[in-house]
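Weekend entry, working from home. Most of the wet-lab plans are on hold until the incubator is repaired, so I used the time to fold the two sequences that have been sitting in the queue since the last round of cloning. Logging both here for the record. First:
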Amino acid sequence: MVSKFAAPVAALIASAAAQSACTFQATTVTDQQGASVIAGCTAISGNVVFATGAAAPTLSLDQVESVDGDIVYTQDRTVSLIAAPKLTTVSGAIKFNNLTALNSISLPAIEKTGDVQLINLAALQTVTTGTQYDSAGAVQISNTQLSTLGGFGNLSSVSDMAVSGNTLLADITMNIGTVKSITIGSNQEANRGLNVAFDNLTMANMVTVQNATAVSFKALKNVTGAFNLIFNNFQTFSAPNLTVAGGISLIGNPQLDNMSFPQLTELNGEKNTFLISNNTKLTTIGGFDQLTTVRNDINFAGTFQNITSIKQLKRVGGTMIVSSTSDIANSVCQDVNNLKKSLVVAGKASCSGQSKSAASNAGGSGTSSDGGSSSSAAAGIVSIPALPTLSAGFGAFLLQFLLSF
């Protein structure tokens, strides 16, 4: 049955039969007969909501070519396939949520959509689109069995992208050129590899990548907000063309031993920091030799023995806190002292080494460049609370968390 809010059901059926164009404000489809009526429309104007039991086991929108509105299907345990072989455009959102038996989505002719939500689709293994699908609004993919995002790989224009909780996901390779935010949360299970590549991306407002084994942003030039690499398993990272960012955070990447930001000249975020912490194999912090300006704070903590890329700094608008379990008093701390004496650092400058309590994240004393003893907040390894798997609010939570440093 089709429950139509703006007109009688008979009018909708007559419209579909007579001209294959269906117009309404909102329609709720409750059974397979209603789904068949919708499937016969070539052009739909209005929102279509499929209720539990509307399709079993297949929802096939055979004749639908365009939807000026949303397509919504939530809370169903029977539908296993959603197909729309002729559908080219959806001006509103596609929301497929909590469809526990859904195994496949087939949209081979799709070209442009609004937002896309694929959430809690525990059986979903395949999303089929064509190379012509190049534009979408915000894309959120969470808790599926997808192994790749190939169905979205040709998107060149996306407003936001969030991917998390997809335990079989091995590859995220995207063609996106610009985006407001990218949030790649915890996806793969232990011992699985996840490759993340956004090699055509040139600009973003915020980027966060978590739990990846390889990360590539070859063309990225500008991140107006935070660029965050957190709890990843890659050994090296390079952003060869990044020139300006609001802030950079590299936290808890246990295999990282080399990083390179050869073109980076400025971190200009008013609220973002330059934070490098808990990267246990990173013995030397370097790779940003062109960086001259940091508008806010610098906070480096870990087991590193040397910092090769701070002498060239000309302006640090906030504080500079450096701490390590290694003996850095006669090397790094001297450089920090010199930056403070030359008025490069506007706020407090503190450097401490050989922190006995660093490994346990507890407070203790060590050699300090400002003449005092190091505190638990600035000594050794910064204690990072466990972050949740990405959810709808993960990006906001993570950003708020990072800004607290």
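Second, folded right after the first finished:
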Amino acid sequence: MKLILGQRILCTLISLGPSLHKLPLAAFRKVFELLNVLLGIGVSNKSVSSKDLMVPVGDHQVAVRVYRPANSPSRRSLVFFHGGGYVIGGLESHHGFCQRLAHQAQVTVIAVDYRLAPETRFPGQLEDGLAVWHWVIDNAQSLQLDPQKIGIGGDSAGGNLATVLAMQLFAEKLPGKSISAVPAFQFLLYPMVDFRGQSASYEKYGNGLLLTKSVAHFFRDSYLTNIEDGTQVSVSPIFAADFSIAPETIIVTAEYDVLRDEGLAFVEKLQQAGVAVSHLHLDDCTHGFISLAKFSPKSRQRVDEICAMVGRSNMLSS
């Protein structure tokens, strides 16, 4: 199936200019944030409330934003890590998507503004993610959350962070630390699960789209101090020895995506291990399309399909 017209037009326009990753880092981050504000998806503020909080993590603090459906308060919840290759993105870039997810799926979303690379390299993001997860579990009552119904998730690099934590693959890099409560489920939106970047989809879809091969490699090189770390399970969960430890999984892959092959391989490994998996493959979408959905009815429909998938999943049943 062809890439949705609205996504195709915007990807073409973006690719006409210089590659964004060649801009000064501050400019790259600002452009990505503006892209999401101008072209991303959202809902009216009346349907979802949000509140910013700070979580102490060692010698620093991590900002989180809590989104709650306004009309029918839900005790179902999701700790969400934004995408952006661990280099760009934050609370503002994913504000619209988190609003829409909270509203459409009727879940409380806790978005996490973890530290970015290259200022903070691997495993700093794992440290932040694990600390925020523990904070959410420890403060579930005051946050009005059911501790038995808290899931973990993210898009792209955020999906990587979520599944490394959910599958408890961080022990080698965070010695002495463990997860205080197993997530009720994981939600992975076109996740990055193999940092080698060598699959056929890297060649097939490596140019002319929002996430190109060169940008993906830029993200990898910014995140990792040593490229050799790319085969460690705490970086590339596709190499996990035991997939049965994964919680029930909601996973979305996109056809026009350099990460397509690793995402599909990850789904297969989860299924082979007997994990309950709800998988949606979007054969007319590209990686990062939630950043391009505002003026494309079909793209908005795909976003709503993802939200509905989360909302109706048995994993989230009340």
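Plan for Monday: verify the second prediction. Residues 137 and 147 are 6 Å apart (CA to CA).
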